[in-house]
């Protein structure tokens, strides 16, 4: 799978990300770094442990990384989670919101694993 095909599959903005990062190889490198951060696990841990401020910071950072990488679907899910956590409390809908973040994250992770090696 090419990087452009991945972005099409996950609802990302390949053209804007390519313009910003300059090459498909750089996009792949940054996607790999992004996935190594494992923000999704950090968010799950903070939510499970009731650490609302940490969960907010992780969700906000995740949203920002997604915006920089053109990961629109995951970014939108992270944005919804961020806004729900903005009040400093874990909302009743946190499990459902996290499930949406995790679903989008898993799509990025699975698709990235199928990427062709950069030339």
Describe this structure in words.
InterPro entries: HPT_dom_sf, Sig_transdc_His_kin_Hpt_dom. Residues 41-110 form the HPt domain. One of its GO terms (biological process) is phosphorelay signal transduction system. It comes from uncultured Anaerotruncus sp. This is Hpt domain. The protein has a single domain (3-112), classed as Four Helix Bundle (Hemerythrin (Met), subunit A), CATH 1.20.120.160. The model has no long low-confidence stretch (mean pLDDT 95). It is mostly helical. The protein has helices spanning 3-10, 14-21, 24-37, 39-48, 52-69, 72-85, 94-113. The protein contains 7 helices and no strands. The longest helix is centred in the last third of the chain and has 20 residues, at 94-113. α5 (52-69) runs antiparallel to α6 and α6 (72-85) runs antiparallel to α7 (94-113).
